[in-house]
Amino acid sequence: MEKEIKGYPYIQFEHQHLSEQEMLSQSNTYYRQLDKRRSVREYSDKAVPREVIENIVKTASSAPSGAHKQPWTFCVVSNKATKKEIRAAAEKEEQESYSGRMSERWLKDLQPLGTDWRKPFLETAPYLIIVFKKVYEEEDGEKSNNYYVNESVGIACGFLISAIHQAGLVTLTHTPSPMNFLTEILGRPKNERPFLLLPVGYPAEETFVPKIERKSLDEVAVFYE
Ligand code: IYR
């Protein structure tokens, strides 16, 4: 059903009605499923069908955004030479970060996670998704700023990570700093800034991840009843 409201086209919202029992069951299943997600740093080079990646990106791009501007570009890199170039540039920055730019406290906080400047996953993973935020749009030389860009792109990345997990793949939110080399290597326009880099693929065989605990509901939520 379609109609006009105040001169704009509307369609009827299709709500998926669930019984309370179904809600309980589905919310719990979704929680248990997402709670299994872990950031993975060791990847297999096993190929992933491109259509799976396309579905994942479409899911991310279905996220809400300020004034529905969808201020993002997902650069999907599987080209070996480009991955190699990205790895070299990222490791160069990371080397400087780990040997001086990051504080002692920061380095100590990262120790249990076992990270260092080496990023072999940038070449091993079959795909790298580099998310760019579009700070403004340019039409006929006219610049117009987008709204709530960080919030919008952050939410889209949440959808992306959840879709990757749901597809049976693994990822990692990698944030080399500074990230401008990605703008250059990928030839992105001026209005786009790199936001997050995510390797996507299968975990390497026998992957170990840090034994961490998640905060309890009491620690993260306050109910005002
Ligand atoms: N960007 C670096 C450092 C790093 C920072 C945080 I905060 C992490 O949770 C993990 C790593 C890197 O990618 O190694």
UniProtKB/TrEMBL annotation:
Residue ranges occupied by any Nitroreductase domain in the UniProt entry: 35-202
Domain of life the protein comes from: Bacteria
MF terms (GO), sorted A to Z: oxidoreductase activity
Keywords assigned: Flavoprotein, FMN, Oxidoreductase
InterPro entries: Nitroreductase, Nitroreductase-like, Nitroreductase/BluB
Protein's UniProt name: Nitroreductase family protein
Organism of provenance: Marivirga aurantiaca
